[in-house]
Amino acid sequence: MNKFQEITTFTAVVDAGSFVKAAERLNTSKAAVSRHLFDLETRLGVRLLHRTTRKLSLTEEGEVFYERCKEILAAIESAENEITFHAEDVSGHIRINAPFSFGIRTLAPLWGAFHQKYPKVTLDVELSDRLVDVVEEGYDLAIRIAALTSSTLVSKKLTDTRIVLCASPKYLKEHGTPEKPANLIDHQVINYSYWAGKDEWSFEGPQGKESVRIKPFMQTNNGDTCLAAALAHQGIVLQPSFIVGEALRAGDLIEIMPQYKSIELGVYAIFPTRKHIAPKVRVLIDFLVAYFSKKI
Fold first, then answer.
1. pLDDT of residue 296
2. Are 89 and 117 in contact (CB under 8 A)?
3. What angle do CA 11, 13, 17 make, to 5 degrees?
4. What is the pLDDT of residues 269-285, one digit of tens each?
């Protein structure tokens, strides 16, 4: 009786979604997978999986047992990693998700230095402003720019970014400069379509919180497209400092209504668990933390 082999096979079947795919992952036969599952259910005296010709699904008992099995396997991996972990020998593949503009502007220049430090680690960096499901979509780590709410995931704050209301000098000369949020209704506005407030922009001003429902003539799911439109004198944007900061310093954009502050967002590294972080992910998080600590 090999309990470890049984639970390894069981979790592989659940993760793969079929006996055939599990057998491929475990480099064994479908018959061996079926036998291990039969032996496990017989020993436990319960059915763990509903089997049909089209799909597999967990029973109520199977769901409980699956979660515990994953914890056990992760604990074993973590114990092995604690004994064998040496940063210079870390290897493996890391799947990363990051926002598009932040991924290009801030993260892209870092990957070369990371590879030099950890040459045995390979990276799959996917850029998307869509809010991905880290666990369901199989990411080892994600970068999120947000006012982070409670989550079952674990986060490590890297830095902050300020959200700035701005436009080009030419646009403001032609259309005038708004003095309070309500004036934005009369202006051309370029909106970021993933903005949490949708078409409502909120500010903290001298009299407290003020909000305005804008009427954008253009919206886009990419911050650099908002920036390009503003630089082309097309209107007013509300964008993070890591996107508009350079243009503001150069005078190509001007901050509007500085007495009315928008929100400040945190930049976080998000990962599924604190207990059993793989060495490859641990060194990446440490690398990012060290980099951003020098930038602040």
1. 44
2. no
3. 120
4. 988 865 567 889 989 99
